[in-house]
Specification:
This protein is of the alpha+beta class and 221 residues long. Helix content is 43%, strand content 18%. 29% of the residues are buried. Belongs to the DtxR/MntR family.
């Protein structure tokens, strides 16, 4: 396959990310929002990627990745998450600092480097945000998890991931000590604003907004 620009790679990864969340068929508008660019720019890029047989586009049905396009996107995700793991585990970055750096490092093309990085880290299955790291064959680890908001009163769980990677959200979680591995128990759901009260061992009770509880993934005990 001919070499791709960083922008083309970023579009493929964006389409992959949206499709994982919303389904295989992705609208131009969703891509425009994800990439923070104009609709005209998206249309132009979809045309380029389609000519390279990396995406399929059908009017009124949206954009989907071809098998080759999915392979490229999955490898980018693999590199990004491995670099995040490296930055946190080996260089002592915090989980809210690594995204932008990994965005730059993911475009390094050496597959040998990526495989040695994976081996050096001990073949991690999840990155510092709890997202699965695809293996060399593009397979993602599967883990049973639910949004914290879906726990019933009395349910207990362990925080295993986040939906929102914004630095402000991750810094908030650090302040309230709700990082990965935190143990929680659902105490109450508030009907008025859909906030929740939890017990966070061993630090006591905490009220979380609907937005926070929906963006935290837990594994039920």
């Amino acid at each position: 396959m001919e070499s791709l620009s960083q922008t083309e790679e970023n579009y493929l990864k964006a389409i992959f990310k949206i499709s994982e969340r919303d389904g295989d068929s992705v609208s131009n508008n969703a891509i425009s929002m994800e990439m923070q660019t104009s609709a005209a720019s998206v249309t132009d890029m979809i045309g380029r990627l389609s000519k390279k047989e990396l995406v399929n586009y059908q009017k009124h049905r949206g954009v989907s990745l071809t098998d080759e396009g999915r392979q490229v996107a999955t490898h980018l995700v693999r590199k990004h998450r491995l670099w995040e793991a490296f930055l946190v585990e080996k260089l002592s970055f915090t989980w809210d600092e690594v995204h932008d750096i990994a965005e730059q490092l993911e475009h390094i093309r050496s597959r040998v480097l990526v495989e040695r990085l994976d081996e050096f880290l001990g073949f991690p299955r999840f990155d510092p945000h709890g997202d699965p790291i695809p293996d060399a064959d593009g397979n993602f680890a599967v883990r049973k998890q639910v949004p914290l908001s879906e726990l019933a009163v009395g349910d207990e769980g362990i925080v295993v991931g986040v939906q929102d990677h914004a630095s402000s959200f991750l810094q908030y979680l650090d302040r309230v000590k709700l990082g990965l591995g935190a143990k929680v128990k659902m105490l109450e759901h508030f009907e008025y604003d859909e906030s929740v009260k939890i017990r966070q061992s061993p630090d006591g009770e905490l009220v979380l907004s609907k937005k926070v509880s929906q963006n935290l993934f837990v594994q039920k005990k």
